[in-house]
Design a protein that fits this description.
It is built from eleven helices and 14 strands. By secondary structure, it is α+β, with helices and mostly antiparallel strands. The chain has one domain: Beta-lactamase (3-Layer(aba) Sandwich), CATH 3.40.710.
C-alpha cells in the first residue's frame, strides 16, 4: 500500500504527523527557513534543527546551490524539507516538492519493476535474458550468453560493459533503446559481454538498460508507463517519473557543475539506468516501502510480496577486481542485493543504500530496514558528496549510532566519513569509519553512478 503523504505546507518543509485516529495527515507550522515544525516524534526536532542551523555552511562547503532532505521513521516518511536554491538565476528556493534528477537511484526503483514481474510469474530471475528478447540480442562473444540472467543483471554480475551514461542534450535527437544498446549513447559504448557471467562484480548501467528492454518486451508497453502504473503511483510517488513529465517541469531544479555553472537538462534513453526524476519525499516513500510500515504493513507495500522484498535486501558477496591490482584479495569484494548496495559492517544493523550522479546532480539514500529508519539527500550539483557526508554524519549521530568498528575483512565498498580523507588503495584499512559503503563509490570507484 502507498506510504501516506499529503500536501499541506508552510515554509520549505513538511512533517507527516499521526493523529489520534491513526490516520496520517500533514500539519505545518512556523519554522526557520528551509524547514517546518511539528514532527511526528519530538526526537526528530534535534536533527531538523541542526539542518536548519547549519545548512548554509554545508551547501557552501559542498559547492551546492540547493538540496532537499527527507527522513524515514517507523517505516514512513516523517519529514521533508528544502534548503538553498533550486535555480539561483531565478532565486527559486528548494521546496519539499522540488524535482531532481537522481541518477543511478533509478536502478533500485527499476529493480522493483522487474521484481513485480517476477512476483506475477512473468519473469524468472535465473532464466537467460535472451529468452525474453526479440528486438535486440547481445552480440556474440567468447562467453556463454545463457549466463546473462535477470538476477545477474540486477546484481551487476552478468559480465557486461557500459558502465555509465552521460545523457543527451535536450536539443539533440534521443536515440532509440536499440540504438543505445548498439553504442549510440554518448560514449558508454555498445553493450557486450566482456567477462564470464557470474564470475565477479562489474558495475554496468548497460545491464539495467537491457532490463528496460526486457520490461518493454514482456509487458508490450513503454517502460516509463509501466513503471508509473505498477510501481511509482502505487507507492505514492506521484511527483516522480522516468523521463521528464511536462507537469513536473516547473517544479524541477537546475543542475550545476562544481564551479556553480548551470548544466542543460540532459535527457536519457537509458531510463532504467539513469532517467528517474523525483523528490526527496517520494524517494523516502520508496525507501520506506522496503520496511514494515507504521501499522504493520508488510515490506513491499502491495507492490512486491514480502518474500520478494526480503530477497532484494539479502546481501550477496561478489568478487570484484575493479580496484588496483596491488590491493590484497581480501579487499576485492562488493556486497549487493537485487538493485541495492548492502553493508552489514557499518553498524550493528544492516545498511541498505544507493547513490546516483548525473551531470549536475548528486543523490543518495540510506536505510536501516531493521530499525525502520532512512534518509534521502538530493542536490542540484555534481559536487554533492561533501554535503551528503556532512548530513549523513549528523543523521547517524542523531540516531545514536556512532562510528562503526573497522571490519576484520574490509571490502571495496567500505570507506570513511566525510571528515576522513580517503587514502590510496593500500591504506584503505586505516581510517574506515561510519559511512562504510558510501564514500569509496563517490570518491574512488564511481560504481554506483549513472
Amino acid at each position: 500500500m502507498p506510504v501516506p503523504g499529503g500536501s499541506s505546507r508552510r515554509g520549505h518543509g513538511v512533517r507527516f504527523v499521526p493523529v489520534l485516529t491513526g490516520v496520517l495527515v500533514l500539519v505545518g507550522a512556523a519554522a526557520a527557513p528551509g524547514a517546518s515544525a511539528a514532527p511526528p516524534a519530538a526526537e526528530i526536532d534535534g536533527f531538523v534543527a541542526r539542518l536548519d542551523r547549519e545548512h548554509q555552511g554545508w551547501l557552501s562547503a559542498g559547492r551546492v546551490p540547493g538540496a532537499a532532505v527527507a527522513a524515514v521513521r517507523d517505516g514512513r516518511v516523517a519529514w521533508a524539507g528544502g534548503y538553498g536554491q533550486a535555480d539561483p538565476a531565478r532565486l527559486a528556493p528548494v521546496k519539499p516538492d522540488t524535482v531532481f534528477q537522481v541518477g543511478s537511484i533509478s536502478k533500485p526503483v527499476t529493480a522493483w519493476g522487474v521484481l513485480r514481474l517476477v512476483d506475477k510469474g512473468q519473469l524468472d530471475l535465473d532464466v537467460p535474458v535472451a529468452s525474453y528478447l526479440t528486438r535486440w540480442q547481445l552480440p556474440a562473444s567468447p562467453y556463454d550468453a545463457d549466463g546473462v540472467t535477470i538476477r545477474r543483471l540486477l546484481t551487476h554480475s552478468a559480465g557486461l560493459s557500459a558502465h555509465a551514461y552521460p545523457g543527451t542534450l535536450p536539443t539533440d535527437r534521443l536515440p532509440s533503446l536499440e540504438e543505445s544498446l548498439n553504442g549510440n549513447n554518448g560514449g558508454a559504448g555498445a553493450l557486450e559481454i566482456t567477462m564470464r557471467p557470474g564470475s565477479r562484480y562489474q558495475y554496468s548501467g548497460g545491464g539495467y538498460t537491457l532490463l528496460q528492454l526486457v520490461i518493454e518486451e514482456v509487458t508490450g508497453e513503454p517502460f516509463a508507463s509501466y513503471m508509473r502504473r505498477e510501481v511509482l503511483d502505487p507507492l505514492g510517488m506521484t511527483s516522480s517519473s522516468f523521463g521528464m513529465r511536462a507537469d513536473l517541469r516547473p517544479a524541477t531544479a537546475v543542475g550545476h557543475n562544481a564551479d556553480g555553472q548551470p548544466y542543460p537538462p540532459y535527457v536519457f534513453t537509458e531510463l532504467a539506468a539513469a532517467g528517474l526524476n523525483s523528490t526527496a519525499a517520494d524517494l523516502a516513500r520508496f525507501a520506506a516501502a522496503a520496511m514494515t510500515g507504521p501499522q504493520g504493513q508488510p515490506p513491499g507495500r502491495g507492490v512486491l510480496s514480502a518474500a520478494t522484498t526480503a530477497q532484494a535486501l539479502t546481501p550477496v558477496s561478489l568478487p570484484d577486481e575493479s580496484v588496483a591490482a596491488d590491493v590484497t584479495r581480501a579487499l576485492h569484494q562488493v556486497t549487493v542485493g537485487l538493485g541495492y548496495a548492502i553493508d552489514n559492517d557499518a553498524f550493528a544493523t544492516p545498511m541498505v543504500w544507493h547513490n546516483g550522479v548525473n551531470r549536475g546532480w548528486g543523490a543518495v539514500f540510506v536505510t536501516l530496514p531493521e530499525r525502520r529508519e532512512g534518509i534521502v539527500i538530493l542536490a542540484n550539483a555534481t559536487s554533492a558528496s561533501t554535503l551528503h557526508d556532512l548530513i549523513l554524519d549528523v543523521w547517524s549521530s542523531w540516531l545514536g549510532l556512532g562510528p562503526a568498528a573497522t571490519p576484520a575483512t574490509p571490502q571495496t565498498n567500505q570507506s570513511t566519513t566525510g571528515r576522513t580523507v580517503l587514502a590510496v588503495a593500500g591504506l584503505l584499512v586505516a581510517g574506515m569509519i561510519v559511512w562504510i559503503g558510501y564514500r569509496l563509490y563517490t570518491r574512488r570507484s564511481k560504481r554506483f553512478i549513472s
